[in-house]
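Continuing the series of single-chain predictions for the mutant panel. This is the parent chain; the variants come on the following pages.
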Amino acid sequence: DVQLVESGGGSVQAGGSLRLSCAASGYPYYMTWFRQAPGKEREGVAGMEGVGRTTYTDSAKGRFTISREYAKRTLSLQMNSLKPEDTAMYYCAASVGAGSISSILDPAGYRSWGQGTQVTVS
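Parent structure:
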């Protein structure tokens, strides 16, 4: 397991941008951003596996960009054109081994989670 610490959340008006960061204690194969709004299930937003294969949920495509700096052990999520429906607690999750995750945007199977960072779009 790895330790994860998110940062970068905040409040922004619709159409604005935020950048989330997740610092990891190691080099997990899978790193993914999830979000959970009040009363809703946790959903995968964007994930990265291996050396750079990315997957986005449909609502994030064209607006969000996931990136990873291996030297700094950091995962980022650049969020542009934010909408009120993007309001949620955002979590970073990781899984160490290749093949340990069957579906990168499915929260099941991830053993390591950050504490979350709140994003509010008004």
